[in-house]
Amino acid sequence: METIKSNKAIEKDIQHYLRELSAALHNQDLSLVQDAKFDAESHFRAALLESSNKANPMLDIIQDYGTPQVIAQHYCDMELTVDLAFNGRKEYQSNVQSGSIFSILKDTAAFKALIYYFISFPLSMVYIAWVLLVGLSSAVASLVLIGIPVFIFFINSMRYFSLFEGRLIEPLLGERMPRRPKFLHNLSQFKSLKGVIALIKNRENWTSILYLLLQLPLSLLYFTIFVLPAVFSILLFLSPVIDPLINTINPSLSIDINWYWLPISTPLSLIGLMLSLHAAKTIGKLHARFAKSMLVSI
Description:
Elements: H1 2-24, H2 30-50, H3 57-65, H4 68-87, H5 90-97, H6 108-141, H7 148-173, H8 193-200, H9 203-249, H10 262-295
Helix pairs in contact: 1-2, 1-4, 2-3, 6-7, 6-9, 6-10, 7-10, 9-10
């Protein structure tokens, strides 16, 4: 009985530390808070297995790791360093954004957004296949108990799908996303009905599933209104030059747009490309915020 009390007390100490860490990071990005909590909890649970202080192991572990306030400051400093290394100075970014109308053509953020839309379309098919084939089938099979282990596995997989999607969004859409998954510290709880019910009632799991389902129509829409017009604009820009060259090499191939269309095709293609890039960048920011609201919680 004493061991059970000790384990409960240790668990209470861990959760108390994590709450204090969250409070110390209250004005920081939620993704940073999730990363900090994951690192702290991972360290605590690994250190508990090696601790020689059986009476009060958390006391020594916290002393070695650092107080919540110290750790919070460390993560804030590290975040500034990483942000500066990857994103550069704010002054330079503002100069790029406040340039001429053609500045969008050298804005890497807009092209990264197009890359995200291009990648997200095939990925969305994988997402929805996973949800429908594994999630839905295991949920139905759970009604007769045999599908419960698979359904638990499916629900837990949402942590890694969320992490994977976040690792795409951060470099391509510029929104800070978690770099660690949500911590899952007690697998044994899923052996009981109470633990399974708690897993099912977890809001983040269901918002992640909903996000994966919505990705297919959203990515199809993005691909249609951003990627295809951008590709068409680039082809329109290149065709008056490339088509005659191809025809010279192989006369059997007809010329779709000849060189004398350059005065018309060039401005039209540039306008189309710039509109696509502006829209892709703007919607990309909105999508990143939407994804964060669905995939991140503390």
